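A further point concerns the way the authors explain their paired sequence and structure data. Since the whole study asks how a given chain folds, the encoding of that fold should be made plain. A single example would do more here than another paragraph of explanation. An entry of this sort, consisting of the sequence and the corresponding backbone structure tokens, reads as follows:

_____
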Amino acid sequence: MTEQSSRPLRVDPNAESAERGAPEFAAPPDGAPVYHGFTVLDDIEVDEFKFGMITDFEAQPETRGDAFVVAPDNSRCGLDWEVSKLDRFEQVIPMEWNRWGVWYVTFPNAMSSRENVRRNLAHIMPLLSPKWEEWRVLFNSGAESGAAA
């Protein structure tokens, strides 16, 4: 068992699965956006970008984990995050037609409150927002859903 697999996941209780008995994130319905089945924290918003939780740091304190960001057009990117005093921002997975990449980021604040999560999102947005803009140009995105085919 890997270190990551022991971390709790925050699944969306309202998400639907395309296969009976399969987790929503493992069997998303046709047209669902990437990271379907995980929870978008609608109360965590910076410049119209919202924070999505994969690793459930509210159920169990975490210093690293996985998350995603939802852009104003509902397109998404993944985050491999770690709480650290050192600033880092690196590409983990390149941009694809349905996702504007996966990024390793460090957060300066412990993921111990929704306000700290908002501060951490605000901390990375000056670096992340241009990546979304780049993705929109590269993939000529006029799509409003960020959905996978």
Notes: The first strand starts at residue 39 and ends at 46. The chain has one domain: 4-138. Helices lie at 114-138. Residues 143-149 have pLDDT under 50 and may be disordered.
